[in-house]
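Q: Predict the assembly, please.
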Amino acid sequence: MHATVSAARGQSKKRQVRWESFFDLLTRWSFLMPTILVLTVTLAYPIFYTIEISFAEFDMSSFGAGEWVGWSNYREVIGDYRFWESLKVTLVYLAIALPLQITLGFAIAFLINAEWWGRGITRALFIIPMVVAPVVAGGMWRMILDPLWGLMNYALQSIGIGPLDWFGDPDLAMAAIIIIDTWRWTPFIVLIATAALLALPKDIFDAAKIDGAGCWSTLWSVALPLLVPIITATFVIRWLGAVKMFDIVLAATYGGPGKATNVVNLFIYEEAFRSLRFAESSAMAVIVLVLTMVLTGIFLRGSRKLEERF
Amino acid sequence: MTSIASPILKRRSGRLGHKVRIAAGVIVSLIFLFPIYWMVLTSLKQPVDIFTTPPTFFFEPTIATYVEYFRRADISRRLINTIIVAAGSGVLSIIVGSMAGYALARVRIRGATTMGLLILLSRGVPPIALAVPMFLVARKLGLTDKHITLILAYCTFLIPYVMWLMRSFFISLPRELEESAMIDGCSRYGAFLKIIVPISLPGLLSTLIFSMILAWEELLFALVLTNRYASTIPVAIAGIAGDTINGANWGALTAVGTITVVPVVIFALLVQKWLIRGLADGATKG
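A: Predicted assembly structure:
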């Protein structure tokens, strides 16, 4: 009798322990649960829905995915030269803007890191362009670059250049987009780079100086290898932002002239919400999604390799 | 002779180089600020002063454009909408996201790292891939043109952002803090709310402000998911900038642009120290 009581007591204790550990597990997961819940509804579900529509015929009456049509939307989109054009435009923008912004960002960071009483203020000033809404930046620069009344052409003409038709010439329009984007995003890189440059160990540079290393060789063989991790990280962050390019183009050129600055996001937006071709635009969105993921993976891999080499 | 002179010369040239560097830095920062200055200046001009060659720098300032646009119901309503949406999505994502960040930083859960990486990966999802299905679903459920729809849509990029910033922040805190609290009988939630949150308040606040700025500026989802009642300021600016039929309305563009930018700049400068730190951390540890 006594034995059974203690056994029962032991069992209940075991049960209690088990319940407690279950409760503990529940509490642990409850920290993550709200995020999982919200992102499942707002992020995961839409992605799957996009994939579903991209394989279906769009049913206008029910305003949703209709009959399954397999790869036909994809075939149509891949055969559409306008989609390729927009991808090409995006690629040109990325290939010029990203290296430009990162080089410029680190160069400016070096300049404003000079020690003097106004250093903190100068650095804080760089926050201001960074928080200007991209759509405002696009509109504002559209005014500055206006061929007729704009300040830029006035300034350029006073030194004998122009007048330049910023939004009429395809190449100049692309240049305008890159200028605006660079103005908006370089400050972001400047702020990261100033912190990174200040974190560099000073004694290494002193040692390099004592060893008689010149400016360039110090930069090339001492500073750069130390900066590689932060440069690659900045590149990846900036890349993730730049592939979403939409607001500035919409406000400044709306893809024009012709399709010269029609980045892929704007093209998909137009196809979906102006032409109401939801199935085709979903297929394009999925292609862009896959491309972005693959390239991001490659960049992350490459940056790790690059870090190992230095 | 030269051997004595050269160090002095070098130091002098170094000092000159230093001055040139400071001057160049100041000039570059002024160049970056100039477009904003020009926008604010233009917003205070009368139409006669806007369209001039050469551009005018000195004129009689007027706030006529502001008065006109604030009277227009749609700008003030958009302003209120933008505030509601920015505050709502900011607060929701700071609560949800910082809990997740804490879970990834401190609470040992099997599978949490994978989940975290998956959420991080979502930063690569182009918003247009979400905008299309969100529009269709919202339409079907009768949720278009509502604040809550926009708030939830903004969570898709704000929660991952908050989660990763706060994760790196929580990792930098000493582990003993909540361990001792939990030994003293605090529950896990007690330790989080009573110890971790108060200590992280500056970090949480600056992340909140930065999240609200991101929501404040968002265009694509606002364009797609709202049309009249819940529409935001960026949509108005896109409309004004894109309205080329009536000719460029620079007065409106710059006035509404200034209204959009000024509060954000004030907030950003208030938390600039934390903002810069957050950026640096986000780049190195994110």
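Chain B is about 80% helix and 0% strand. The first helix of chain B runs from residue 2 to 43.
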